[in-house]
Specification:
heterotrimer, A alpha+beta, B alpha+beta, C alpha+beta, A: alpha+beta, Aldehyde Oxidoreductase, domain 4, 3 domains, 6-stranded mixed sheet, B: alpha+beta, Uridine Diphospho-n-acetylenolpyruvylglucosamine Reductase, domain 3, Enolase-like, domain 1, 5-stranded antiparallel sheet
């Protein structure tokens, strides 16, 4: 195991970014570029009877479903292709794209957009999971508004429930969350001189955009060239959504023949782009006479919004994560994703795991409180160990270092001592969460769907081109990928060239998501580099490639029954948060934040630490500040003033450390980190507040208003 | 394109105000948001705009006969950096927005915007501040609680400019300010409470309490204050519960995207009780 | 259209413009200075921060009509100075940069802070940057960068 790889180096892009030289999509000058403005549905659920477009001045265009080429289709081909490029005869959510106005002056476009009149025949919309279940107003999707209904079973839960001495029931909820990447959505499309459709976009998955655009336009994929531009944050919000905006833009660019840029206004971005799936998880937990947990029956319901998109993959990860780090002998889990007339829910850092993990950790703390057990002692009884069976009847193949991590966080935070010292309800609290995150695409996505390929080319001057489709979006990939290649090849990091990917120039190594870039693609980079090193002196120019292979020793995945090893490896984490609650205002002051993670090996300790810091603060926002309410299908918080993410003054410094646990099929032993570091903090925060007010916290965000309710109800 | 003007003196500004009905624009931090148009398109203002933040006559923060005058174009940062400004006003102003906005924003703008959630307004009510309104015809001074009549509503006449904020000499022996915001910095107010009191010996000479964002205007009751003033501390303690009950009927908050009526009500009353019983009545023998 | 005379990074400009046009748009579109970013357009995120007559402001909230005679410094100007280079180096070593979109604004806020307070405490640094939002770093390493710049740049501010 190579310690040198972990030694931090200065990020290769830091200087240019700080000084303002780096160009993001809004900064790129494009000769003769027109602007686009989306015309959107103002109804959550309606039939569209007609669209009346005002008379357009010279040089202005209105593009809609009728402009899609004959060979194309009015569907966005993503994981599911139910989302239309342009809403045609019906609309399913407020903000849905009906048409695109294009022209040279943005103010004129705003004015024209306000003059477009849509005739609706309104239908009864459904917004909550409960309304969707009741099929209010008739189904939005299928017969029963259920995009997917999954069942998992481990052991014999029915028998265990029959023997139970006590059953504890509990419901835990999580809310919407908006990504608030600092750079709003942006796409530019144009017809290139070579006749191909060129798309520039800020986002995570250039080949996803290529695929969606080529399907919409009815052209072979090679006729579409997609260039990722430097991405100012994404967090999953630019994983599929660029497909949604580049497809109508491509139709417009193809028809008009000039470059067109679509740049979202922040209010537009918050109001109409996809969000994290809200969840409601119901638990029935069976205990025996001694107070041991003998079975669990868990029901997960997600609010997936108006179109399915990737909701079933989110649902899968949610149900695979909802038993968290525990080996409960008998478990049955049901998961459903519901269609509603809200903005579609989609990818967001964690992708179902934060919802499942929050629910389970919070439920375990409730069980502990209910039976008078000490929380860490209760959780400690069921920790997964190497060889244990997972909820999909796979195995934990690796060593689980949770006991060591718990001891370490104990030393760092004084957790056990403070738990004894603080009297519940005396406005001070300390909370703890345990969590894990499977690296890479869920199930057999890597081998059946993605089949990622990495290429590497040595040039005559000894410079090496790294050709991958994964992107730098702040997580440090520009630096870490180069480090991996350089260290294997034993050349300076500066000798590795890794440009922002263009689909015409790189192979498809898969999307930048699922914490797979280091864990899966990094390994391909390592293996390709090894090949190149062997063949280095063969010739002036040497090119190698390496494709994904399923690691040995895994239990094969059965996608139909969701059985086997859902993930090849796991990251593990422990978080502790300490709080003080103001008895007058119920405001929470966070006094300390500690974290210990196992990401195998750090490809760069500072970059991993930066991800820990960012993930935890974003998760504390999710857990305490980021309230996003829907009323009649509209988000009530739509400005950066009202949707409050953490500032530099909201939380204290984070103290974190890593444990070593190298993974054989990770580059230098590394596993995924990007989402793991988000997964735990909300639960630790809620747990701390619970102690401070001595009342069960059952939902996030834990706002002062909610704390007041819990405290007053618990003590009335 | 809306006309905009840049007068070179206060006199010229007052002329423009009278003749063109121009909207005064100092820091503009409320106006730029209110009339914002997407993607940098130039906003549509309903009236011509008149920039006034550069006018020398409107900038000074200086002592005057009965107190302190804060010019309408003095920025919030200048208010924070002035030695003359009372502590409670600084405590309120430092919670407004963030440094970059405070470098442009003005108290005058905050007052004329007349949001019930205006943090500086809450403190200015408790300080018994007044506003000087000038026109070509002359000038008048109004107490701030007469100037503001509802959300977004002031008594500013069409030909007037608010030129100064007058803060009377503050002889408080104790003060308290608390803003409950949506987060720790750069936050809008859910509610705020300002309290000042002067205690000599065992007597409560003066008390002023203002509560923000719990009613259409800042809540201040001179009647309730007078019931407490001039009494001994122990007498005030004796009527405290009845005073609190009367304040309770004045605190009538609403639900909105930032908070709930129930929360605002309970927390406002908690803070009020804390100020009255926890601070003022503990000041025995001050 | 009225003419506004102002200077940017030491260079004088005379621009015919609607006085209500935002400084942010004049900088980005007319002067091609794209170091300032539009993150929100409502003065909340600080990605558009510049120094105007020596103080930190959000250029998305500044109409050209208030810029007559003003001296504006943008990231492009600051990065050429010793102070700017010190901040850039300190940020690079501290891991303060992830996606980079907030970073030029953070650099401007750091400069504004160190001009007033060359040896800030951690709390003072956090308050000075409280109008600049970041979604990637969780702020700790940016604060490290500020404190390191202060330490390295003794005598510069």
């Amino acid at each position: 195991m190579n310690k040198k790889i972990s030694t931090p180096i200065k990020r290769v892009d830091a200087g240019m970014k700080t000084g303002g030289s780096t160009r993001y999509i809004g900064d790129i000058p494009f000769e003769g570029m027109l602007y686009g403005k989306v015309v959107r549905s103002s109804r959550a659920r309606a039939k569209v009877k007609g669209v009346h477009v005002p008379v357009l001045p010279e040089g202005y265009y209105y593009i809609d479903a009728g402009d899609i080429p004959e060979d194309g289709k009015n569907r966005i081909e993503m994981i599911k292709d139910d989302w239309p490029v342009f809403a045609d005869r019906e609309v399913r959510f407020i903000g849905e794209t009906i048409g695109l106005l294009v022209g040279p002056d943005r103010k004129e476009l705003n004015r024209l957009r306000d003059e477009v009149k849509v005739e609706y025949e309104e239908l009864t919309p459904v917004f909550t999971i409960e309304e969707a279940e009741a099929v209010k107003g008739g189904p939005v999707h299928g017969k029963d508004n259920v995009y997917g209904d999954y069942h998992l079973k481990k052991g014999d839960p029915d028998a265990a429930f029959a023997e139970a001495d006590r059953i504890i029931e509990d419901t835990v909820r999580t809310g919407y969350q908006e990504h608030i990447y600092m750079e709003p959505q942006g796409v530019i499309a144009r017809v290139q001189e070579d006749g191909k459709l060129g798309v520039f976009f800020s986002g995570q998955c250039p080949f996803y955009v290529r695929h969606a655009v080529s399907a919409t336009m009815g052209v072979p994929e090679e006729q579409v060239e997609v260039q990722q531009t430097v991405t100012g944050g994404a967090f999953g919000g630019k994983e599929h959504y660029p497909d949604v905006i580049s497809t109508p833009l491509a139709v417009a660019a193809g028809k008009i023949g000039k470059p067109i840029g679509l740049f979202f206004d922040r209010i537009e971005d918050i109001s109409f782009t996809p969000k994290r799936h809200p969840s409601t998880t119901h638990f029935r937990t069976a205990l025996d006479k001694e107070g041991n947990i003998i079975a669990m029956d868990i029901d997960v319901r997600l609010n997936a919004g108006a179109y399915e998109s990737c909701s079933l993959v989110v649902l899968q990860r949610a149900i695979f994560s909802v038993n968290s780090v525990y080996n409960i002998p008998n478990v049955k889990i049901r998961g459903r994703a519901f269609a509603t007339n809200n903005v579609p829910s989609d990818a967001y850092r964690g992708f179902g795991a934060p919802q499942g993990l929050f629910a389970m950790e919070t439920h375990m703390s409730h069980v502990a409180r209910a039976i008078g057990a000490e929380e860490l002692e209760l959780k400690g009884r069921y920790l997964l160990k190497q060889g244990d069976v997972t909820v999909t009847n796979g195995r934990i193949h690796e060593e689980v270092k949770l006991p060591e991590m718990i001891r370490r966080i104990e030393e760092m935070s004084g957790y056990r001592r403070k738990v004894k010292e603080y009297t519940p309800g005396s406005w001070k609290g300390i909370g703890l969460s345990l969590f894990n995150h499977g690296s890479g695409f869920t199930g057999n996505g890597e081998q059946e769907i993605i089949k990622g390929v990495v290429k590497m080319r040595k040039r005559a001057d000894g410079i090496v081109d790294l050709l991958v489709s994964n992107v730098e979006m702040g997580q440090g990939l520009q630096t870490t990928f180069r480090k991996i290649a350089a260290m294997v090849l034993e050349i300076p990091v500066d000798s590795v060239v890794y440009n922002d990917p263009n689909t015409g120039l790189v192979p498809d190594s898969g999307p930048t998501c699922a914490s797979r870039s280091i864990a899966i693609v990094g390994y391909l980079v390592q293996e390709a580099a090894k090949k190149l090193k062997k063949r280095w002196d063969e010739s002036d120019v040497v090119e190698v490639s390496h494709q994904y292979e399923t690691p040995e020793g895994l239990i094969p995945w059965d996608q139909n029954n969701l059985q086997g090893d859902a993930y090849p490896s796991y990251g593990w984490g422990v978080n502790v948060v300490e709080v003080e609650v103001d008895p007058l205002t119920y405001e929470v002051t966070t006094k300390g934040i500690w974290a210990v993670h196992d990401v195998g090996v750090a490809i760069d300790e500072k970059i991993v630490e930066g991800q820990v810091d960012g993930g935890i603060i974003q998760a504390l926002g999710y857990g305490s500040l980021e309230k996003l309410e829907v009323k009649d299908g509209r988000f009530q918080q739509k400005t950066m003033a009202d949707y409050t993410i953490p500032t530099s003054m909201d939380f204290p410094r984070i103290k974190s450390s890593l444990v070593d646990n190298p993974y054989e099929y990770g580059p230098f032993g590394a596993k995924g980190a990007g989402e793991l570091v988000f997964d735990g903090a909300a639960a630790a925060f809620a747990d701390a507040v619970q102690m401070a007010v001595d009342g069960d916290i059952k939902q996030i965000p834990v706002t002062p208003e909610y704390i007041m309710e819990v405290r007053e109800n618990a003590h009335s | 394109m809306v006309d905009s003007y840049r007068p070179l003196s206060l006199k010229e500004a007052l002329e423009l105000r009278a003749e063109k009905g121009a909207l005064p624009f100092a820091g503009g931090t409320d106006l730029m948001v209110r009339y914002r148009y997407e993607s940098g398109a130039i906003p549509e203002y309903p009236k011509p705009i008149m920039f006034v933040n550069h006018l020398d006559e409107l900038r000074p923060i200086r002592r005057v006969d009965h107190g302190l005058s804060i010019g309408a174009a003095a920025t919030m940062t200048e208010v924070l950096e002035s030695d003359e400004v009372p502590e409670i006003l600084k405590e309120a102003v430092v919670t407004i927005a963030a440094p970059g906005l405070r470098n442009a924003a003005t108290l005058a703008g905050n007052i004329c915007n007349a949001s019930p959630a205006g943090d500086s307004i809450c403190a200015l009510y408790a300080l018994d501040a007044g506003v000087k309104l000038q026109s070509r015809q002359g000038e008048r001074i109004l107490p701030i609680y007469q100037f503001i009549s509802g959300p977004g509503k002031t008594d500013l006449h069409a030909d007037e400019l608010l030129t100064e904020i007058i803060v009377p000499h503050n002889r408080a022996t104790t003060h308290f300010f608390k803003k409950v915001g949506t987060r720790r910095a750069n936050a809008l107010s859910k509610l705020s409470l300002s309290g000042v009191a002067r205690i000599s010996g065992d007597r409560l000479d003066e008390i002023r309490i203002a509560i923000g964002a719990v009613a259409p205007t800042v809540v201040r009751s001179i009647e309730l204050e007078k019931r407490m003033e001039g009494r001994s501390i122990s007498e005030v303690a004796g009527i405290a519960e009845e005073i609190l009950r009367d304040y309770d009927t004045l605190v009538q908050p609403i639900d909105d995207q930032r908070s709930t009526a129930e929360y605002r009500k309970r927390v406002a009353m908690n803070l009020l009780r804390h100020f009255l019983l926890g601070i003022v009545l503990q000041q025995q023998g001050a | 259209m009225p003419t506004v005379k102002f200077s940017v990074n030491g260079t004088s400009h005379s621009i015919d413009t609607d006085p209500l046009r935002r400084l942010l748009d004049v900088l980005r579109e007319d002067l091609k200075l794209t170091g300032v970013k539009e993150g929100c357009g409502e003065g909340e995120c600080g990605a558009c921060s510049v120094l105007k007559d020596g103080v930190l402001v959000n250029s998305c909230m500044i109409p050209m009509g208030t810029c007559e005679g003003s001296e504006i410094i943008t990231p492009e100007g600051l990065r050429e100075t010793d102070q700017g280079k010190t901040i850039i180096d300190a940020y690079g070593e501290s891991g303060a940069v992830q996606c980079g979109f907030c970073t030029p604004g953070m650099m401007m806020a750091t400069e504004a802070l160190l001009r007033k307070n060359p040896s800030p405490s951690e709390d003072e640094a956090r308050e000075a940057l409280s109008g600049n939002l970041c979604r990637c770093t969780g702020y700790d390493m940016i604060i490290d960068g500020v404190l390191k710049a202060a330490e390295r740049g003794k005598g510069l501010w």
